[in-house]
């Protein structure tokens, strides 16, 4: 793997926790717990490799439709994760950014993620973006509404709106677009994750369930990315 040609922004849809639990005759909550162990390794490796941004799809706006028991387990796991990991993340100079509607989270979880963002705000290492209560369409609508209000109030002219101006209204403002998106478990869809930011992303869909996704699998995805011919709509001569 060429360390000089790594993607600046890796996005991961961590899929397969439930199927992993079923495969091992365990409750779904145990699958999510196992997934956290994988998550810990991937974050550390991304930081050590010098990747600029790692975005993780943790909980979508649609995930509230899951059973109350599973939602409660996920929210509890989220709280424990920040309590147990924040010290190491801060020590490794990781900056945490939450993508999504924080106000829609339960009180304890909202306080935990806001605290994590504030504590790591000045860190200059890996940007760790965690999508919570996130929907890609909702993000775009939110950005469009903000721009419409600015035009209405005379703070912006309609003909001044371009890709850069629009991007500054997204949760990922100031971060590079996604270079590589990985979705584990073999599913091959975005599920609304970073729709704008993935416009020219390279996709990898390993069949491995997320709790079984090792650093070797991660390195393989990075190596496959490095073999891609990225033309961004143009044509090489």
Question: Notable features of this structure?
Answer:
237 residues, alpha/beta, globular, 14% strand, Undecaprenyl pyrophosphate synthetase
Would you write up a description of this structure?
This protein starts with 8 loop residues before the first strand and ends in an 11-residue tail after the last helix. It has helices at 17-23, 28-49, 68-91, 107-119, 136-152, 163-167, 215-226; strands spanning 9-13, 53-60, 95-99, 127-134, 180-183, 202-204. The chain has a 6-stranded parallel β-sheet with strand order 3-4-2-1-5-6, sandwiched between helices. Helix 1 (17-23) crosses helix 2 (28-49), helix 2 runs parallel beside helix 3 (68-91) and helix 3 packs parallel to helix 4. With 237 residues, it is an alpha/beta fold. The chain is built from 7 helices and 6 strands, in the order βααβαβαβααββα. The protein has one domain (3-134, 177-226): Decaprenyl diphosphate synthase-like (Undecaprenyl pyrophosphate synthetase), CATH 3.40.1180.
